[in-house]
Amino acid sequence: MDISKKTIDWEIEKVLTGKPKKLYDAANHISSAGGKRLRPILCLLACESLNGKTNNALKSAISLELMHTFSLIHDDIMDHDELRRNVKTVHVLYGEPTAILAGDLLFSKAFELCDPKATKILAHASVDLCEGQELDMEFEERTFVSEREYVEMIKKKTASLFEASTAMGAVLAGGSEKQVRAFSEYGQNLGMAFQIYDDLLDLLADEKKLGKPVFSDIAEGKKTLIVVRAMESLRGMERDRLAKLLHKTKKSKKETDEIFKLLKESGAIEYAKQKSRGYINNAKKSLEKIPDSKAKDELLRIADFVVEREF
Amino acid sequence: MDISKKTIDWEIEKVLTGKPKKLYDAANHISSAGGKRLRPILCLLACESLNGKTNNALKSAISLELMHTFSLIHDDIMDHDELRRNVKTVHVLYGEPTAILAGDLLFSKAFELCDPKATKILAHASVDLCEGQELDMEFEERTFVSEREYVEMIKKKTASLFEASTAMGAVLAGGSEKQVRAFSEYGQNLGMAFQIYDDLLDLLADEKKLGKPVFSDIAEGKKTLIVVRAMESLRGMERDRLAKLLHKTKKSKKETDEIFKLLKESGAIEYAKQKSRGYINNAKKSLEKIPDSKAKDELLRIADFVVEREF
User: ipTM of this predicted complex?
Assistant: First the structure.
């Protein structure tokens, strides 16, 4: 890619410097703690693949990262999460009111930066983000969620912003309708795989690399694909036992271990791995008709990375 | 105006119908409880004054109301307010997580609706909203805030969205740079007057008409113009007494009465009335070079209404 991650980091920091200082510090906190900048990179690579000028797409690419960070800050408040990227979350450090505002500021800055040609794409994704997060929260209250419902939820909550990222890059490069569609499909499939693999990481990752506690989805009663699938495939006493354990608000180490064992024995972990790889294959297939280039190669490599990463 | 308030109400309700139902109901709650729709009306009147097609500006006009409602919902969470427009606030009815999301959804919908030609105006105003609200909260922690600081705060927190409303109308009508500037100035001055008059209403209004408890600014330690001015003009023991009373987290009826007496005797209430009228005169003056029309007349009437209204 002809724009480095360092440039992206630097641009984000520049946008998030301002007054009142407390508000801007809060807004910058999560970004400055790291992050893969996956969404801006995807946008710029999509743009580059179609021979677009990435310099003209940089600000819009940054807007995607701001939108992502906004959703992390607000989600952390809603989910009462205390750690992210190995640092305390914004509401823990700055208090809830300023954390809400920091999210709102990131949101506003995103639309201030985004190219007017692409604001509809960004706005559409952010509507999806909200609807998806609401579904995610509502699912916590339910014992049974179908795989179809789960798929609809993560399409909105996660895949939509990935889709927006690559679609935006293609649009800003002046791509044809067909090309924009190809990049949209790539982004959406990549996002689906990303979320399912995230569900897996919650169970399987190294805590330090993940930057937050493992099993937090289980602790919060999140309906991950693994939980959804296990509840669909287990029968009789095992299913009842899993439902009962998942329903508990406070789970002991022993109970969490038992949940993990039940999930594993149900075959749901294996199933989720296969599903995420399936989406990755679809993502790659979407780009078949896009002419080969170094940028396209990187997009294909990112697809593999998404289901092999450790964080 | 050639578009009725009813049409505006109806358009808002249409936008705020969707799934998940709980989220959309929460987002629609404050709008459906009433509201003057002042910002959309200002936008449409500015557009009409310059012979623009108001039908083409309607969606952008609605986006201003959504942005306003978003800020009300989030501010109510931050300020722990329980009543607005005579109904319970969103976080009281739907819980904080869904209230945060409802605000985010309104924000997203605003940018989905807004004409790409005007998104920068909207985004700029929303950055200001956030910065202004942060300043407002920070001022609560301080004993002394200067009038200059107060003016900077309300310019961002309140006047900016008024300014955006009329500027947007002028831009969408294809107005010249000079014309857009005239409408921006009108909107900004109107917004300043609006906020100062709001500060006054908190002390002087009829609770039922106001739709929320009077003296809530005082209870929350808000630095209204009246408080700021009284602290600047009182001397010696009276000033110390006022500072001490304002600083208390729980204030009795007797203490609130004493605060009111001190504010009144300091001349700050009269001062704030004059200030708001001064801004209104400036607002009207800004439109002097705009050709006369029915729409312009309405804008001049609204200016007077803003400092005579009861809610």
Answer: 0.96
